[in-house]
Amino acid sequence: MFALGSILLAGLLSLSLAQYDYYDEYYIPSAPLEGVSSPSCAQECECPINFPTAMYCNERNLKFIPIVPTGIKYLYLQNNFIEEIKAGVFDNATDLRWLVLDNNNITSDKIQAGTIDKLGSLEKLLFSHNKLTKPPGSLSKSLDELKLIGNKLTSFPANTLAGMENLTTVHLSKNKLTTESLTGAFKGLKSLILLDVSENKLKKLPSGVPASLLMLYADNNDIDSIPNGYLAKLPLLQYLRISHNKLVDSGVPAGVFNVSSLLELDLSFNKLKTIPEINESLEHLYLQVNEINKFELTNICRFSSPVNYSRLRTLRLDGNNITHSSMPDDTANCLRQASEIIFE
Predict the structure, then answer these.
(1) Closest by CA position to 50, among listed 39, 38, 58, 67
(2) Which end is more exposed in the chain, N or C (fewer Cβ atoms within 10 Å of the end residue's Cβ)?
(3) How far is the C-alpha of 33 from the C-alpha of 15, rounded, in Å?
(4) Would the pTM count as exceeding 0.85?
(5) DSSP string across 145-168
(6) DSSP 8-state code for residue 15
(7) Is 255 in a helix, a strand, or coil?
(8) Are 278 and 255 in contact (CB under 8 A)?
(9) E strands along the chain, which residues?
(10) Are 343 and 8 in contact (CB under 8 A)?
């Protein structure tokens, strides 16, 4: 049967953040513990003899980027006090693949021409927690990951990512982006699988996202409705997170979430009064802290039989206006695979 839980409303916010793993930082390998660097290495940094294509300049109280020598492919500059990127620092780094600039003080107007835009082989640009108001321009077409978390982005020109057919992940959370500022931004990204636009100022889900997308995270915005047929254009989408928004029943078209590809749907902390119609293949449904007052089983299972039932394993309904006693008689048959159903 079901594992039924009772959770205090006061603890729901913290629990909502822990209901799935969500990483905000990129794993950065530490420099090997040896005191010898290659002779060409910048004196402020370390270039291990046994990893000669990497230069570690992280956590060294730097206020500038040192000249990068020839042959460096992986450059770690995170956790410093860098405020600008001066012309010439990357002139020798024609084969740079990874550039990590997280946790500095760089502003958009202090990125000089002939720097990042010259890195034609760049694959990963990790530029989170700086003071950017717009993305760096003319980025490498070889890029497969772009991380701009926790900046001050208010604009994202439509041509920023143009031609990036290898781009798989884009992280834009914790900025000040609006729906309008993202118009056309993701067009033509044939390989994109993860898009994170959470903690911005969106009123709608971003338009024009590619059909290749597997994960779309839009938590903590001002979204009040879902366009009719939005998910039908994303046939591979498995994870959709729209928690902490302003969704109401009138903004959720009938069947908009009833797509067979979805495995996880998070609609918690919204203003829904009914359980939306879902597909029987969905495995995790988060609806805690809405205004739901009726358990509508037909929106989960249109009918139940030995071969027709929901694949839901997790169903959270805590913080609503229903209890265990609200479940219809046929619930056990419909939700036979559920291992966790949580009411208040």
Answers:
(1) 38
(2) N
(3) 39
(4) yes
(5) EEE-TTS------TTTTTT-TT--
(6) H
(7) coil
(8) no
(9) 4-6, 54-56, 74-76, 98-100, 124-126, 145-147, 169-171, 194-196, 215-217, 239-241, 264-266, 284-286, 314-316, 340-343
(10) no
Q: Residue 9's pLDDT is what?
A: 36
- List the structure tokens of 95: 């084969």
What pLDDT does 29 receive? 57
Positions of the chain with pLDDT lower than 70, given as ranges: 1-35
Q: Can you tell me the distance from the alpha carbon of 275 to that of 202, in angstroms, rounded to the nearest whole number?
A: 23
| 335: number of Cβ within 10 Å | 23
- Do 235 and 261 touch, CB atoms closer than 8 A? yes
- What pLDDT score was predicted for residue 298? 94
Task: In the chain, count H helices and then E strands.
Answer: 2, 14
3-state secondary structure string across 195-251: EECCCCCCCCCCCCCCCCCCEEECCCCCCCCCCCCCHHHCCCCCEEECCCCCCCHHH
What pLDDT sits at residue 19?
Answer: 55
Token output for 159 = 């041509």
Burial 181-210 (b: 16+ CB within 10 A, else e): bbebbbeebeebbebbbbbbebebbbeebb
The distance from CA 70 to its chain's CA centroid, rounded to whole angstroms, is 34
How far, in Å, CA of 284 to CA of 340, rounded? Answer: 10
